[in-house]
Amino acid sequence: MKTPFALLTLLCLLWTSCQTDPSSNSETTSPESTAESTDPMAAPEWVNNAVIYEVNLRQYSQEGSFQAFTDDLERIKKLGADILWFMPIHPISETKRKGPLGSYYAVSDYRGANPEYGTMEDVDAMIKKIHELGMYIIIDWVPNHTGWDHAWIADHPEYYTKNADGEITDPLQDDGTPWGWTDVADLDYGNAEMRQAMIDDMKWWLTERNIDGFRMDVAHGVPTDFWVDCNQQLMETKRCFLLAEAEVPEHRNEAGFHASYAWTYMHLTNEIAAGKHTAKEIIDYYKEDQDKMQSGFHMYFTSNHDENSWNGTVFERYGDGAQTFAAASFIMDGMPLIYSGMEAPMKNRLKFFERDPIDWNGYAWQEFYEQLTRLKHDNPALDHAGEPGSISFDGTSDEVLVITRAKGDNTVVGTFNLTAKAQNALRKKEGIDMAKPMISNEAIVLGEGTKYDLKPWQYIIEVL
Question: Domain residue spans in the chain?
């Protein structure tokens, strides 16, 4: 594996972040946005160029607590994170629990805080600190099912799916066979009262805890007409950010989600890294995706809690190209994700049902991500919401991905060698403007004419 990013930049003119803390007092309100859209369903203005950071609280620290995470918030702010997405922080059911601690997604109380992490007072203090630092918080919401200890099991069995014998079931696939999620009970979205109770619990977090939005787990397993109603009620309660775990066009085109996962893109990049597909196929992916998605944007990622635990680390899936594909996710026209531990960089698969604290390894990739977040924040061409920068792939070949983003007089070009072999790539113009930021993970070598000589997995990002 290559040495850390900071040691490999040849031309890296560090520019200071244009961001300042929107709030320097101790008020608990979210940082104020300016120039919000008049569209009541539009994403908050602070989403436009935001970087999202997924928090795996159980594994984040040796303590695995709200307080320990709160103590590290200033480092995360320095990393460049704008939105903190917390995996479920609710109490976990003990009935039918998997492993010693159970799944985060087997929720026993939608309005509670997991006592293993701390108290609701700790949650409030953490949210207050997040807002004071000018960041925002969204929480994982699990609408498809509950744990078997949830009060609804006893008080409202009519809220759940039943089998032929009238017994509550775990979630089933379309053909009636189980998914294997035996630790949770499937909710029946044919029940109108359950639907509204679910929405009311979400609204409680917006009004009583002052969070800033939700990441909806298994959004594709819930009827679209529920999301239409739910998202409208949530946005009427507070202008918040709504992220769907899905790639269902109707979620963004009709239901009001601002963003969704780019699973197809992530899977394609895994295959490109393995030599099974080519960089040029990203163009085909993008054209097909644009035909499907008429609004909103993707969240691009190379790892998250599912990918790391179940499918492999970034080193298993991308090898020596791990930084290259991560850098590309910051240049694509969506919101880039950093998962807890990627700045370590984390080289192991985190256990899912038990404690497995991250080895932070001196935060060896902290500067790598800091420079990418500064690039994202400082260049309007990289905006992905509001008035996003345009995107094109001129110059892309089977081996080299070239992404050009532009907005007004600001242009950012990323050139990425997506192979383990040396390549040549065309430059956008003669020479290099030393007054402009330019970053690379290798020494930059100019070839003949308007070419770069790229080393294996090398990337070059320049502001024109």
Answer: 25-386
Q: What is the pLDDT of residues 100-134, one digit of tens each?
A: 999 999 999 999 999 999 999 999 999 999 999 99
When the candidates are 3.20.20.80, 3.40.50.1000, 3.40.350.10, 3.20.20.70, the CATH number that belongs to 25-386 is 3.20.20.80
Give tens-digit pLDDT for 70-101: 999 999 999 999 999 999 999 999 999 999 99
> Among candidates 45, 52, 16, 48, which has minimal Cα distance to 31?
45
**Cα–Cα distances in Å, from 385 out to 112, 335, 364, 390?**
33, 9, 31, 11
Residues 6+ apart with CB under 8 A from 346: 308, 313, 358, 359, 361
Alpha carbon of 433 to those of 115, 341, 446: distances in Å? 55, 35, 13
Lookup: tokens for 138: 């969204």
Burial, 430: exposed, middle or buried (Cβ in 10 Å; 0-12, 13-18, 19+)? Answer: exposed
Q: Tell me the residue type at 202.
A: M
Contact 424, 398 (CB under 8 A): no
d(CA 56, CA 80): 18
Whole-angstrom Cα distance, residue 265 to residue 186? 30
Token pair, residue 337, equals 């994700």
The Cα 250–Cα 253 span in angstroms is 5
**DSSP conformation letters of 46-103:** GGTT--EEEE-HHHHSSS-SHHHHHHTHHHHHHHT--EEEEPP-S-B--TT--TTT--
Give the containing element (helix H, strand E) for 453. Answer: strand 451-454
